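Structure in, sequence out. Go:
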């Protein structure tokens, strides 16, 4: 015969079932909370990204308001080309600084091309700067080539023109030589300096007349 379970045994079984149900409910609740946290984290990240994008856009608008004529460098092909040109100018200048004589030769060739073959000539800032730096030095630029340079200078515009006029005027102010000064054969070194100054004054005067 089968033994009947006592009331106590049934009660124990019910308690175990109750514990199992509570445990499974607890685990389910924990899983739901974990999923909820994960969802909240995702939503939070999305909100942070949107906020950052908004702040970046506001910053760009503020920059545009402060500098309405400014153009972002990364969006302009012109600025990229300008950087390349400036880099090329610096590279050429550094190379030619090691050989100044070669630099002036190339600059004079540039001037000759402008004077005789205008259709083949192309503006080069570094060559123009070299000519402007040495135009008062007769040993670097002869009188015949200086006449060509005077014609070239008439085409100067903007800051280059203003700076050339200012420099020529300053030379006349700094080297005011009176007509009473005469060369002294006994002091050839002093005479050479005086001659150099007179050439600078003469060229500065012609430059001012050309650009006036």
């Amino acid at each position: 015969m089968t033994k009947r379970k006592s009331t106590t045994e049934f009660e124990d079984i019910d308690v175990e079932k109750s514990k199992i149900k509570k445990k499974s409910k607890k685990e389910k609740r924990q899983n739901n909370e974990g999923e909820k946290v994960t969802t909240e984290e995702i939503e939070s990240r999305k909100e942070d990204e949107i906020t950052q994008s908004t702040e970046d856009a506001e910053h760009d608008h503020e920059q545009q308001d402060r500098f309405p004529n400014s153009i972002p460098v990364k969006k302009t092909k012109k600025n990229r080309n300008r950087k390349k040109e400036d880099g090329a100018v610096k590279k050429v200048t550094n190379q030619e600084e090691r050989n100044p004589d070669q630099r002036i030769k190339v600059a004079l060739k540039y001037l000759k091309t402008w004077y005789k073959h205008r259709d083949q000539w192309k503006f080069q800032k570094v060559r123009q700067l070299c000519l402007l730096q040495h135009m008062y030095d007769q040993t670097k630029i002869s009188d015949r080539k200086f006449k060509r340079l005077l014609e070239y200078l008439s085409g100067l515009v903007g800051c280059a023109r203003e700076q050339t006029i200012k420099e020529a005027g300053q030379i006349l102010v700094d080297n005011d030589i009176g007509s009473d000064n005469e060369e002294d054969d006994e002091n050839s070194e002093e005479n050479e300096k005086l001659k150099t100054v007179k050439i600078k004054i003469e060229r500065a005067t012609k430059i001012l007349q050309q650009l006036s």
